[in-house]
Design a protein that fits this description.
7 helices, single chain
Length: about 200
């Protein structure tokens, strides 16, 4: 998202996390801009029964956790390293100075936040209205579009990760995937979903 050299000019630091490390917790005060240099992070919530709902997954070059910086509220979800990960971390004051001095970056950030808002609205509709097969296809199509809409797309997510993203149980996702394969909406090759 933001060029690393620019972030470092504003005194950002690179921090290494190992898989399973918590980057920030739900209800913690937002004080930093985070951008994945290498690796992967997920943001999630847990309900009272301990079921996880994944708000988003972020990889190389993607930022996460910005809305609380702009809205001056606490993190609505926790973030955890799902692989060994290097993260560029920039303080809130320096982040806003960067945006004031680089209008083009500010516009890119606004576009990114708008796309995420659109995704959240789409997922709310999917979760509340549509059957499991439709929810699974919507997530797959969103990921495919995010990766440039290739002719054939291999889904790198596990069935559990798809369940976490759609609010479904993993058993429901497995049944939905089988039904989608029967309906020729997807193909299963070496246990991976292709669309």
């Amino acid at each position: 998202m933001i060029n690393e050299a620019i972030l470092l000019d504003y005194e950002a630091e690179v921090i290494e996390y190992t898989m399973g490390d918590v980057i920030f917790s739900e209800n913690q005060r937002a004080l930093f801009y985070f951008q994945v240099q290498h690796g992967a992070v997920k943001m999630y919530n847990l309900n009272e029964e301990g079921k996880e709902f994944v708000q988003g997954m972020f990889q190389d070059g993607e930022s996460f956790g910005e809305p609380p910086l702009f809205g001056n509220f606490k993190y609505p979800a926790s973030a955890i390293a799902i692989s060994n990960v290097s993260i560029i971390k920039l303080g809130k004051t320096a982040f806003f100075a960067l945006l004031k001095e680089h209008f083009d970056i500010h516009l890119q950030m606004t576009a990114t936040l708008s796309r995420r808002l659109s995704y959240k609205a789409m997922m709310m509709k999917e979760i509340s209205v549509h059957p499991p097969e439709h929810r699974v296809l919507t997530v797959i199509d969103f990921l495919k579009q995010k990766d440039g809409n290739p002719t054939t797309y291999k889904v790198e997510l596990t069935r559990q990760q798809i369940a976490d993203l759609t609010g479904l149980r993993v058993e429901t996702v497995i049944r939905a995937v089988k039904k989608l394969e029967e309906d020729e909406e997807i193909k299963i090759i070496n246990r991976k979903i292709h669309r």
